[in-house]
């Protein structure tokens, strides 16, 4: 199977913690991956997306533009990515940033997506492009409503089709571990909405640059977000507890952090190869042993 590499310009509409992590991961992938690392997506049951073709395409970012509202944010991003000539940072210039792109990644606060997508000139700027939203809790339908806010309520089939032809809107839930190319990104396929395979393949290959990708039902996005995004926070709390206990026992904090990180990495590999968390616990927490006694006390 041959794979076609297609150059694309990427714009980040909003570049806070998550979009910044994705940008960082994409930059790392440009020097640490090759096009043969990428696989074509497989549409999930119940959707109407086109089936994979025999020659999937992989996008190769040729420019990365970060659009932010505040000049202070722009200054911080310029400093962070000053070593990367392909990164451009714009302040207060969302529409020009979108105009010069092929794929737009929307990463603003849930309270701000409507005003950003309703900016004068934004609808025209999005024409013929793919909008990828990483905004939590906002469906594809709501995103279309924001883009076409002055067209009345969505409802007619022909109106939906016309809007989908204007620009393709997809929803993705990644994690901040995208910065180290270790995210699990969930790409939503909304039942009844058709995505051309070229569009799906482009988005899929883009997020493969920052980790693993799964096709995911729209209705399971909240649960999926808890796992791939919230899970990092929940596990971090456990790590923090381990580290603080180690520090109180006399271990240097930096060493305790490295030990905890190695421990988490080992646990991930054990689970990935098929062991359940309870099996791992039984192997470590031997009755009468030090770990076993701590485990019983903790439970």
How are the secondary structure elements laid out?
Layout: E1 4-13, H1 17-32, E2 57-68, H2 71-80, E3 87-91, H3 94-99, E4 103-106, H4 113-117, H5 122-125, E5 130-133, H6 140-147, H7 157-166, E6 168-173, E7 183-189, H8 197-208, E8 211-217, H9 221-248, H10 253-272, H11 277-284, H12 290-298
Parallel strand pairs: 1-2, 1-4, 2-3, 4-5, 5-6, 7-8
Antiparallel strand pairs: 6-7
Helix pairs in contact: 9-10
Distance between the first and last residues' Cα: 52 Å
Poorly predicted runs are: 292-298
* Fraction of residues in β-strands: 15-25%
**If you compute it from the alpha carbons, what radius of gyration comes out, rounded to the nearest whole angstrom?**
22 Å
Number of helices in the DSSP assignment: 12
Q: Could you tell me the number of beta strands?
A: 8
Helix content: 40-55%
Large-scale geometry = globular
Q: What's the main sheet like?
A: 8 strands, mixed
Arrangement of strands in the largest sheet: 3-2-1-4-5-6-7-8
């Amino acid at each position: 199977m041959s794979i076609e590499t297609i150059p694309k310009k990427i714009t980040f509409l909003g570049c806070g913690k998550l979009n910044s992590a994705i940008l960082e991961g994409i930059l790392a992938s440009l020097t640490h991956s090759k096009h043969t690392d990428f696989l074509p997506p497989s549409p999930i049951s119940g959707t109407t997306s086109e089936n994979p073709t025999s020659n999937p395409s992989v996008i190769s970012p040729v420019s990365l533009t970060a659009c932010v509202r505040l000049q202070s944010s722009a200054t911080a991003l310029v400093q962070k990515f000053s070593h990367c000539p392909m990164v451009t940072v714009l302040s207060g210039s969302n529409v020009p940033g979108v105009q010069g792109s092929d794929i737009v990644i929307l990463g603003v606060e849930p309270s701000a997506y409507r005003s950003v997508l309703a900016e004068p000139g934004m609808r025209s700027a999005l024409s013929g492009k793919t909008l990828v939203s990483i905004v939590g809790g906002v469906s594809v339908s709501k995103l279309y409503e924001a883009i076409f806010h002055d067209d009345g309520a969505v409802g007619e089939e022909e109106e939906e089709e016309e809007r989908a032809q204007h620009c393709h809107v997809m929803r993705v839930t990644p994690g901040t571990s995208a910065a180290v190319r270790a995210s699990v990104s969930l790409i939503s396929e909304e039942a009844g909405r058709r995505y051309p395979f070229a569009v799906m393949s482009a988005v899929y290959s883009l997020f493969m640059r920052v980790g693993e990708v799964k096709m995911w039902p729209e209705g399971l996005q909240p649960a999926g977000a808890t796992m791939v995004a919230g899970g990092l926070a929940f596990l971090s709390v456990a790590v923090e507890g381990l580290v603080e206990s180690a520090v109180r026992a006399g271990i240097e904090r930096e060493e305790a952090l490295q030990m905890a990180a190695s421990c988490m990495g080992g646990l991930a590999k054990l689970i990935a190869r098929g062991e359940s968390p309870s099996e791992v616990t039984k192997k470590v927490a031997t009755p009468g042993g030090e770990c076993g006694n701590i485990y019983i006390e903790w439970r």
